[in-house]
From TrEMBL:
<feature type="binding site">
    <location>
        <position position="145"/>
    </location>
    <ligand>
        <name>heme b</name>
    </ligand>
</feature>
<dbReference type="GO" id="GO:0046872">
    <property type="term" value="F:metal ion binding"/>
</dbReference>
<feature type="binding site">
    <location>
        <position position="193"/>
    </location>
    <ligand>
        <name>heme b</name>
    </ligand>
</feature>
<protein>
    <submittedName>
        <fullName>Heme oxygenase</fullName>
    </submittedName>
</protein>
<dbReference type="InterPro" id="IPR016053">
    <property type="entry name" value="Haem_Oase-like"/>
</dbReference>
<dbReference type="InterPro" id="IPR016084">
    <property type="entry name" value="Haem_Oase-like_multi-hlx"/>
</dbReference>
<keyword id="KW-0349">Heme</keyword>
<dbReference type="GO" id="GO:0006788">
    <property type="term" value="P:heme oxidation"/>
</dbReference>
<dbReference type="GO" id="GO:0020037">
    <property type="term" value="F:heme binding"/>
</dbReference>
<dbReference type="GO" id="GO:0006979">
    <property type="term" value="P:response to oxidative stress"/>
</dbReference>
<keyword id="KW-0408">Iron</keyword>
<keyword id="KW-0479">Metal-binding</keyword>
<feature type="binding site" description="axial binding residue">
    <location>
        <position position="36"/>
    </location>
    <ligand>
        <name>heme b</name>
    </ligand>
</feature>
<feature type="binding site">
    <location>
        <position position="29"/>
    </location>
    <ligand>
        <name>heme b</name>
    </ligand>
</feature>
<dbReference type="GO" id="GO:0004392">
    <property type="term" value="F:heme oxygenase (decyclizing) activity"/>
</dbReference>
<dbReference type="GO" id="GO:0042167">
    <property type="term" value="P:heme catabolic process"/>
</dbReference>
<dbReference type="Pfam" id="PF01126">
    <property type="entry name" value="Heme_oxygenase"/>
</dbReference>
Length: 241
């Protein structure tokens, strides 16, 4: 089966009702609730939303996102024709081009210094993506869910906070949070959740999605904690212009 045609909204996907029990989205919400709350309440996120993170801290966040999404989107092409993961290769969600535009505003020579600003927790996260999300369709789906549905939900709050906190610099370096190819975010999120629930996953694969989503949230919490700690380290300052 080839991936469904992509347009401005998520397309349809063949459904196979092979597993009884709660919808996958309900299981994901329940299993990740604790880690999700810990991610949202880390000091770094709380300070970012409140506009208290120094600009160098925001720069560091953009760099971590670049490393993470480059890994996740780097494995997407291999899943395009997969009967499960192919439904989640969605071009209008891809974030790397936006992140690189943001970094280009922050520093024209950003590629020369970004690698050394990648934190150890981010390196661990990337390694997980390059092994598990690259080899198991259910793992790819799990990481896709954690990252992109988060961007379409709480990420919208963060984006507005960045624009308020950093003014013109924030507006010009926060395109990551804007999904210009999506007409309306909420209907898109709703269709995304339906796609998860209708995905032709076996019972074992559904268990795998849930377990890997928990792992993805834990990895994200580790990155956010290191970002908070790195904010006190002058080595993680702004990218030089």
């Amino acid at each position: 089966m080839t991936a469904p045609e992509r347009t401005g909204t998520i397309g349809t996907v063949d459904t196979v009702d092979t597993v009884a029990g709660p919808p996958l989205t309900a299981r994901l919400r329940a299993a990740t609730r604790d880690a999700h709350e810990r991610a949202e309440t880390t000091p770094f996120v709380a300070d970012l939303v409140a506009g208290r993170v120094p600009f160098r801290g925001y720069v560091a966040l953009v760099v971590q996102n670049w490393a993470i999404y480059r890994a996740l989107e780097g494995v997407a092409e291999r899943w395009a024709a997969d009967p499960v993961a192919g439904a989640f290769v969605i071009p209008e969600l891809m974030r790397v081009p936006s992140i690189e535009r943001d970094l280009a505003h922050l520093a024209p020579q950003w590629r020369e210094v970004a690698e050394r600003l990648v934190l150890p927790a981010t390196t661990t996260y990337v390694a997980r993506l390059e092994t598990h999300a690259a080899t198991r369709p259910e793992a790819y789906v799990a990481h896709h869910y954690v990252r992109y549905l988060g961007d379409l939900s709480g990420g919208q709050v963060v984006g507005r906070s960045v624009e308020r906190a950093y003014g013109e610099d924030g507006e010009r370096s926060s395109s990551f949070y804007r999904f210009d190819a999506i007409a309306k975010i909420k209907p898109f999120r709703d269709e995304y959740r339906r796609r998860l629930d209708d995905a032709p996953l076996t019972a074992a694969q559904r268990d795998g999605v849930v377990a890997e989503a928990v792992t993805a949230f834990e990895l994200n919490v580790d990155v956010l904690r290191e970002l908070g700690a790195a904010g006190r380290d002058t080595a993680t300052g702004p990218l030089p212009g």
